[in-house]
Peptidase
Amino acid sequence: MASNRPAPEAPFGAYDTTGQPVGQGFAGTAAPAADVEWNPTEDSVRPVRGRHRVVKQRGGLARSSTVLGVGVIAAVGAGGMATAQDKPRVAISLPDVGLPDASSLPGVGALIADDTTDAGAAAEAAADPQDVAAADLAPLATLSSASPGGQEAQGGSDAGEALRARILQQAEQQQAAADAESRAAAEKAAAEKAAAEAAAQQATAQAKAKAEAKAEQEKRERAEAAAAAKAEAERLAKLAASYALPTSSYTITSTYGQAGSMWSSGYHTGLDLAAPTGTPANAVHSGTVKSAGWSGAYGYRVVLELADGTEVWYCHLSSMTVSAGQSVGTGETIGRVGATGNVTGPHLHLEVHTPSGGGIDPLAWLRGKGLTV
């Protein structure tokens, strides 16, 4: 705060750009002599009138708060607003506050001493008491490098435009990066979707091919089975044509391997076909009579030997119509059913022996030849 004590009267007038007094005093008093040096101090400065009081700053710079605020706004506007150069210059005038030339104040002249052109302009503006504030803004405008209407203002505008261009460029780069990332994500998703669809199509095609192959295999197997069945039927038909049942109008009373005490071996060694006495006994296949005659417990027996060495025994016959060494054909009668030997009733006891002499099941053998027994 400035001192409230009355300050002594000091010579106060107008000064030129070199700091020398000219003409009448600023307050209407006579100018001091040229050889008198005026060095204002805190005690000699005239008290400020009105609201615009000069305050003491820590750096030794006393400035009107209104002037300082307007200067800061002007500096910020000139340095940061790119459109400042397009606006017309506004003259700033303040009421007479009784301030001296800004260049003559201690500590202030040094701020504007570097640029004599700007200092001279400020001194010329300070000649009019109403334009003190406008002249006082020149150093701030010089420091901010944004004097309206000059090259420095154009430089500030260019700097603002450059900053704006850099910001827009960064925004465009960020947008381009975001777009590229979005496109990459979309392309990746599309590629994954296409790969999944291709995999699904491939799996479907493989499953279809596998099903078709399986169906074809089953079809082929069915055809092969049908062909095999047909061939077997043809073979059996041929065999049936070449083989005949040993007798007719019969009833199976005992089968091969059946156990019982009435058989000397402990089990039945042949197939018993019960039929009335005198029923013809026929050759099951063409062959040669190996033997014909009495055979103990078998009664009258005829042994028929086939071409492959298999022997068929006809036992318990009531009579025989062939003799040993005789050749017979399929279905030819070789004897008649009877009850001779160890029997309980008239029947044909049929046995089948392999070339090695072992007995086998006559029922299975007959059925294997295509006969229905």
Observations:
- Confidence is low (pLDDT under 50) at residues 24-34, 54-68, 119-127, 137-148.
- The chain has three domains: 13-149, 173-242, 251-368.
